[in-house]
Design a protein that fits this description.
6 helices, mainly alpha, two-stranded parallel ribbon, globular
């Protein structure tokens, strides 16, 4: 999986959500709050306070330019809380909406039905399947490795690339089993996400 997976998702879903609408797609934020992966070379994480301030200032500037409303399209998990904190900190909280890509009901139901791994959330069966459907040229399945965690799953806290004593030791950085991924799963997950996004965007626009 590429280092820019979350950005690929954000770019793809923002374009899909903006289709047939009078919408401006702002450039994707390429740095965020990802504390679980800081031990892996190249994985940079902002602290929550820095990330929240960054989002708040950008959101306020966009609305100050004249945008009637702003949708924050969130493709992360550790980014959810900082995004939620950024909205009330904005000068225009009623005009900022937070849409989480991987929390919609259709996606969650589809993922439950398709998933064969016992746990996961990062470079796993689900995320890799989505990338195979969206940008297969960026995926190298010959390097896919299941997380070597015990059957009970990993413990809370960051992953480790090299500490064999850690319950969260994962040399590949995966959190789950990407070897179970497929294009078919990704296509079905993709359709579910798009349905969730359109429903949520319509509801947050008031109809």
């Amino acid at each position: 999986m590429p280092m820019a997976t979350d950005q690929v998702f954000a770019d793809y879903f923002s374009r899909a959500l903006a289709e047939n609408t009078d919408a401006l797609i702002w450039p994707t934020l390429t740095y965020g709050a990802y504390p679980a992966f800081v031990a892996y070379a190249g994985s940079i994480s902002l602290n929550d306070q820095t990330f929240t301030a960054l989002v708040t200032e950008i959101a306020d500037a966009i609305i100050d330019f004249g945008a009637k409303s702003l949708f924050i399209l969130d493709t992360g998990l550790s980014t959810i809380a900082p995004f939620d904190a950024a909205i009330p900190a904005s000068r225009h909280p009623s005009r900022v909406r937070h849409i989480t890509v991987f929390r919609g009901p259709h996606f969650l139901a589809t993922a439950r039905n398709l998933m064969r791994q016992p746990y996961g959330s990062h470079a796993d069966e689900i995320e890799t399947s989505l990338m195979l459907a969206i940008a297969p040229e960026l995926v190298d399945m010959t390097r896919a490795r299941a997380s070597p965690f015990p059957a009970t799953g990993p413990a809370p806290g960051p992953l480790s690339p090299d500490d064999r004593r850690s319950p969260n030791c994962s040399p590949s950085g995966s959190y789950g089993d990407p070897t179970l991924a497929s294009v078919d799963k990704g296509t079905r997950l993709l359709a579910a996400i798009l349905e969730d996004l359109r429903n949520e965007a319509t509801a947050k626009q008031g109809g």
